[in-house]
Design brief:
It is a single chain. With 403 residues, the protein is of the alpha+beta class. Helices cover 40% and strands 18% of the residues. The chain has 15 helices and 13 strands. A five-stranded mixed beta sheet has the order 9-10-11-12-13, with helices on one face. A three-stranded mixed beta sheet has the order 1-7-8. It has a three-stranded antiparallel beta sheet with strand order 2-4-3. α10 packs across α12. The model has no long low-confidence stretch (mean pLDDT 93).
């Protein structure tokens, strides 16, 4: 990094290092513990939750790429930190996410905005039409403790687009505005309790103004991204666009963010003041589609020239790369797309399709991908990897897997 200019390769190194995906900063452990988890959250700050379980839940894939361990041990570690130790909590801080409990106060402004009606139209309409019902749900939780939406299920369904029961909508509203929090999960089902029984009182009573909170979140986004355009920083914690960009300009004026020119970008980049460039080499690892390194698709394309579309909701015949495709990070590049499914009943990791980003790919890259697939299968406690026929890298990978 020189004279406010960053090369495209330097930008990748900054991003990879900031996320703890370089070889040196976060060595994998066979038995990661709470100290490893805390370090990971210092690196990415927020961990998006996703229900799709084609190979594993997204948040566990993100942790695997930083921590190692096994699928079950990471799941237990995350559950223990969240629902027993209360070091983490769930809230809408990107999408539905885990975040350090002490950081919940940074999203109080979002809760107040939700209470004023700034949230999904269906929830807002229901609450305005049924305030007494919502109050009954809150009173029930207060009297009875942790409860799931299913346990409060009413017979009447509302808008088919939602597919939610009235009680589910009421609980989601109470969750949005901070009245209830996720006490625990059972088989991935949320159980809600009053926030005062989940979140420590010193966190609940910590008042931070909207401007102060958004400013801090932009600063943290810059640190977690390494380098990012304005929209990248704003998206990291899903801040309002106008206010987010205003906070960026204020930080630049206060010399807390530095505006830089990034090679190949058609817009300014921003780094924390004092950011120093160190050349790093990335791990060779398959990434969750919701990994913070790539979850904002415009940035992934700008940074890696990698245009990604999740095709879960695309009809099977129209899919280009597959149902649940994991990008393969290798040597600071996203060089392949791997469609992966875990068949836990038969102990098989299926790879229906694998596509290289370039027509010809070197054997050492394929060898690294084969090793990573074996590692992923072992992590998921599967005994075999089966590579299908689809994709321009399938034949080469099958040969490598056979050696």
């Amino acid at each position: 990094m020189k004279d406010g200019q960053i090369s495209s390769l330097e930008a990748r190194s900054l991003a990879i290092c900031a996320q703890g995906l370089d070889l040196k900063s976060s060595p994998l452990s066979t038995r990661p513990d709470i100290r490893h988890l805390r370090r990971a959250f210092k690196q990415f700050g927020v961990l998006q939750i996703d229900a799709v379980n084609a190979v594993a839940r997204s948040h566990l894939l993100v942790l695997r790429s930083r921590l190692g361990g096994s699928h079950n041990s990471l799941s237990e570690l995350l559950d223990n930190a969240t629902y027993k130790r209360r070091e983490l909590v769930e809230y809408w801080c990107h999408e539905a996410s885990f975040l350090p409990t002490r950081d919940r106060a940074l999203f109080e402004w979002r809760m107040r905005r939700a209470e004023d009606g700034e949230l999904w139209k269906g929830i807002r309409r229901f609450v305005s039409e049924n305030p007494e019902f919502v109050q009954k749900i809150e009173d029930y939780v207060r009297a009875n403790g942790p409860v799931s939406a299913g346990e409060l299920q009413t017979n009447r369904k509302r808008d088919p687009w939602w597919g939610w029961s009235d009680s589910k909508i009421a609980l989601e509203w109470l969750f949005w505005i901070g009245r209830v929090s996720v006490s625990h999960r059972h088989n991935f089902t949320r159980y809600y309790d009053l926030s005062e029984r989940v979140v420590p009182s010193e966190i609940l009573n910590n008042s931070i103004s909207e401007v102060e909170a958004q400013t801090e979140l932009i600063k943290r986004a810059a640190g977690r991204l390494g380098v990012g355009a304005a929209e990248d920083l704003v998206d990291y914690f899903r801040l309002p666009k106008l206010q987010g960009k205003q906070r960026i300009q204020e930080l630049v004026e206060n010399n807390e963010l530095l505006e830089v020119e990034v090679e190949g970008w058609n817009r300014p980049g921003y780094v924390q003041l004092g950011t120093k460039f160190t050349a790093v080499k990335s791990k060779s690892v398959l990434l969750s589609p919701f990994d913070p390194l790539i979850w904002f698709r415009p940035r992934a394309e700008r940074l890696f020239h990698f245009k990604y579309r999740l095709e879960i909701y695309v009809p099977a015949k129209k899919r280009v790369h597959g149902y649940y495709v994991l990008p393969f990070l290798h040597n600071n590049d996203l060089c392949a797309r791997v469609d992966v499914r875990a068949d836990t009943k038969n102990g098989v990791l299926h790879v229906p399709a694998v596509h290289a980003e370039v027509p010809k790919i070197k054997d050492d890259v394929v060898e690294s991908l084969a090793s990573e697939l074996r590692s992923l299968a072992f992590w998921r406690n599967l005994e075999e990897v089966r590579v299908g026929q689809r994709g321009n890298l399938a034949r080469q990978l099958k040969r490598m897997m056979a050696t």
